[in-house]
């Protein structure tokens, strides 16, 4: 018996360690119970912080860095607080309308301040790429999109679909680089679509070039009369519950020789992970797929290449967002958040601090971003 086989056999019977999908019923139930206790502890801390508990940022980071190091390296089964995190669901997108309400339809002025809003780089709610030498958030976001252009193999004249196009940052930047590229943006957030519609009327924006088309709706309902040379999706698949169904839908939009690039938050642990706090306050039904999840779904689209982007990049991005968020309090505290602003501010500080620390844990080797290049099977 090899060492690998022996460890696999041990995993079946031992709670907490290893792959949840191969455990015996007793080991599985034991791990789920312990995961619920870990989640309850995190939620207790989170709710106390939201209600006004004063914790210095340095102590906050130390608590999460210490605990997450243990979870990543030794107890990954405790990072999935709910059973639904571990498997595909029946729906392509879960809690999508609720997600728009609590996350993407927030006051635009606040999001502009936190994420940045420049002449070509519009607000972009995904990681920047800092390892290429960027020194500012704007540069890091440019470098990240340049990386997407290179890996997807975008050429002038391509007809591209952006599934979940945010505020149009990626299409705007790519349109600025390629004078004959055409873009279609698909987005469910009404607030983000309103931002893009304003840009489509602004002659200084590349979204007004006539080469950008916007569809407000979700993937479940989307239908297009033409097929696309390239499809890209940045960040959206953390909110997609069924990879197999989503890939079938995207494949129906893609030319026979077309390519898809998916960029998601990912974890190098045996199973997917999530957070009770972010599920309640930030990303309803959000999950981080494990690094092998996308390649394992190859019925309609197959992965032909993939890359892991170290979590230090997201750590630096979240740190920049937190600094900008803190610096903008006087400008954004009077906006309408459908709750007391003091509570909103503490929810978001907890979220930004927590995720920023988690991505930096273990030097970013466990929690980062995955990029996957796919074609028709």
From TrEMBL:
<dbReference type="Pfam" id="PF02353">
    <property type="entry name" value="CMAS"/>
</dbReference>
<dbReference type="InterPro" id="IPR050723">
    <property type="entry name" value="CFA/CMAS"/>
</dbReference>
<protein>
    <submittedName>
        <fullName>Cyclopropane-fatty-acyl-phospholipid synthase</fullName>
    </submittedName>
</protein>
<dbReference type="InterPro" id="IPR029063">
    <property type="entry name" value="SAM-dependent_MTases_sf"/>
</dbReference>
